[in-house]
Amino acid sequence: MYKKDEKLVKSLAGKIGRREFVKKGALIGASSAAALRIAGRIAPGEALAVETPELDRMNVKCLKVGFTNCFFIPCDGGYMQIDVGYPNDYKKYLKGLGSLGIDISEIKYLLLTHHHDDHVGFAAELVKNCGAKIIVHERALEPLARGASEEDIRPVNGCVTLIFLIFSSFHKFVFPPVITTPKDFIVKGDDGELLRKIGVDADILYTPGHTDDSISVVMKNDGGDEIAFAGDVAMDLFNFCCCKHRPIFVKDIEEVYRSWDRFRERGVRTIYPAHGDPFSMEELVRV
């Protein structure tokens, strides 16, 4: 069914601005049902453990919460978690966490790659219940405290716009506010020391483009190759829309490409995105 939906949405993507397909921000006609089903694929969902041989060898775990990949990297006293899911995914997350053999008390740090609701949705509840310290970029502080995603981004192309019009008609980009405290760690850019101080042999890389506050985690795998947990600055989502690993929403596409170049400069071999499957750095090509 998805293949048929994808073909229909793609064929109509060039007609988004025409009245016969768009009216008051909602799609009408044959495109509605198809776009709605596709939009549902980025809505809240179940929490499922994801087995990845490379990460398994590093004792790094992955839990797909809805459509967001959350990663758990061993640190002093437990785990550093990268990102959470939507606000309503917390109970599913707890169940999925148990399937990984991790107790919530073992989450010592929570690194947020950026402030969007599918990455910070239940962060406030998680931190309240486990006492984890937050690691986040300074430019995320204002939207986190406000509890709403910034509105200064745009769909990367017409095909994504078509899906976004449907998705935004039933989804509000808000979340319970996340208020940082003096115990938390606020980064201003690249940081090659912070994570090592908590027992994670990795660097924080400032990778804007999707948002102004986007950060990634770069570390070596068991074979010595660099891998990157890239948040949303690179994705494996909606490939039928010709996104080609670009974020489906961008603030500045040129910044995205510069962030990709930073991965290359670091010698990154594999990208672990927050959405979709891991892929080779060689697949990141300017469109």
Automatic annotation (TrEMBL):
It comes from the Bacteria. InterPro entries: Metallo-B-lactamas (IPR001279), NDM-1-like (IPR050855), RibonucZ/Hydroxyglut_hydro (IPR036866), TAT_signal (IPR006311). Pfam families: Lactamase_B. Residues 67-275 form the Metallo-beta-lactamase domain. Gene3D superfamilies: Ribonuclease Z/Hydroxyacylglutathione hydrolase-like (3.60.15.10). This is MBL fold metallo-hydrolase. It comes from Candidatus Zymogenus saltonus. The lineage of its organism: Bacteria, Deltaproteobacteria, Candidatus Zymogenia, Candidatus Zymogeniales, Candidatus Zymogenaceae.
